[in-house]
UniProtKB/TrEMBL annotation:
It comes from Devosia equisanguinis. One of its GO terms (biological process) is chemotaxis. The keyword Oxidoreductase does not apply. This is Flagellar motor switch protein FliN. It is found in: Cell membrane. Residues 8-78 form the Flagellar motor switch protein FliN-like C-terminal domain.
Length: 82
């Protein structure tokens, strides 16, 4: 049995990505966009966010703004079957 100390786990890096939505557009449209441009996404304001760890979907959640802080709450864990 492998025993890991908490110090070992502190050194593991995980890339977390939160996806609000997505869209596809030609690169020339993207290059013409200026400050304040709006990009329409394929998700509504009440649709769940997707939360990825190292490019693997691990959960869904919702966004909340409180006291000027943007927060993401996990509402559902995505189970992977081995």
């Amino acid at each position: 049995m492998l025993s890991l100390s908490m110090n070992t786990l502190d050194n593991i890096e995980v890339d977390i990505t939160v996806e609000l939505g997505a869209t596809t557009m030609p690169i020339h449209h993207l290059l013409r966009m200026g400050r304040g441009a709006v990009i329409e996404l394929d998700a509504g304001e009440h649709d769940p966010l997707k939360i990825y760890a190292n490019n693997t979907l691990i959960a869904r959640g919702e966004v909340n703004v409180e006291e000027g802080q943007l927060r993401v709450f996990v509402t559902e864990k995505v189970l992977r079957h081995a």
